[in-house]
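Example 430, ligand S-adenosylmethionine.
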Amino acid sequence: MSSSAKPRPPVHHRRPADPPGTAPRRAALRLLDAVLRRGEPLEAALPQATRGLEGPDRGLAHAIAAETLRRLPDLDSLIDSATRQVLPEDAKARSALRIALVQTLALGTPPHAAIATVLPLVDGGPRKLVHGVFGALTRGGATLPDVPALPPAIAARWRASWGEDVVAAAARAIAVPPPLDLTLAAPDALAPEGDSLAADQRRLRDAAPVAQLPGFTEGTWWVQDVAASLPARLIGRGPGRALDLCAAPGGKTMQLAAARWDVTALEISPSRAARLHENLARTKQPATVVIADAMDWAPSEPVDALLLDAPCSATGIFRRHPDVLYRAHAGIIADMAALQAQLFDRAAAWVRPGGRLVYATCSLEPEEGEAQLERFLAAHPDYAIEPPRPGELPHGFSAQSGYLRTLPGTLEDAGGCDGFFIVRLVRASA
Ligand SMILES: C[S@@+](CC[C@H](N)C(=O)[O-])C[C@H]1O[C@@H](n2cnc3c(N)ncnc32)[C@H](O)[C@@H]1O
């Protein structure tokens, strides 16, 4: 070639345009990768994974990924039953098959649409294998069980902590969509019709989108699982100064404000604090929001009541956030338990003699609940448990040993509730 020959323009191998309907499936694949490989929370991965998608497609991507996570062990058993060689856990072909199968077997997508929108995800790869396995399974009448299998590691841990009945109840709980619970600012507040577990509580099944429900615009209620409403109920009613130490998105801050406390709400994350501000603005509940790390910050004087709804593994909210089933491994639980112990000890000094401290986590791990309480009581002899009084809790809850432990199976006939550990402590008067 002569030196005067023009250089060839670079060749760009562009991916052919996706057929309609593929973009949300591609986003679902990114979501699964974020949760299963990178250990990210599904909600946190959503903005990046669904960038460029319109609202309904974003909702579809989220629904496919969440349902895949609810059904993962059963989907994988089906896939393994139809492949000669076991596909690696993180193989794209496995994830593509999970997404195609969950749509057809759980979400009602016709098989031809499910596979046509998923095959482009494995372009340049094992399309034939994915097509073949999907076809063999759907033609062979594959089904998913009514009660999903739990991931083996979680089942083993909860079996050791709580026994087989709780494991079985947890599996039943992920099979059905949880109800929508609302906490009312006052018992007579404008709110949708529904079941009621307390005067200021409504439970809705098959609810319309939240923003369309009566009272949303007026801000007379907020979404809050009934178990999540218990910690602030144990703080009781004001007046007085209350500190909500880990506050966003603010369900408990709003309860405390509605109960007439002068509330300071502390939150480390600016983006979560922004949601707290939005929620307070919508419900017109007053609170002073401080963005700070509770490990650096301190109140100017001790408070009458302190709520520590501590950061945790969040395994108690697996019904709404099935990604926790895959992210909450022993290392995370140990890290969270260490942070909880530090926050709990620090908070102990900020309650006036005779004041109340409520400690709570939405965790099903004893390390984040019962063990924290035991350690705290041994280290702080000036604190004692104050058990709930009769009538203080909504219908169906009871406190053995003075504290509350809600588990899969609690309130099951009424639609269940999140898993929580909650204890109210009183500091001895000086
Ligand atoms: C379980 S959530 C709180 C839920 C909230 N109480 C509610 O009812 O809506 C825990 C919160 O604590 C915040 N957090 C974690 N570590 C913190 C710290 N060191 N200081 C202050 N807030 C913290 C997290 O960002 C998270 O928003």
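Summary: The pocket of S-adenosylmethionine is lined by residues 246-252, 266-269, 272, 293-295, 309, 311 (CB under 6 Å).
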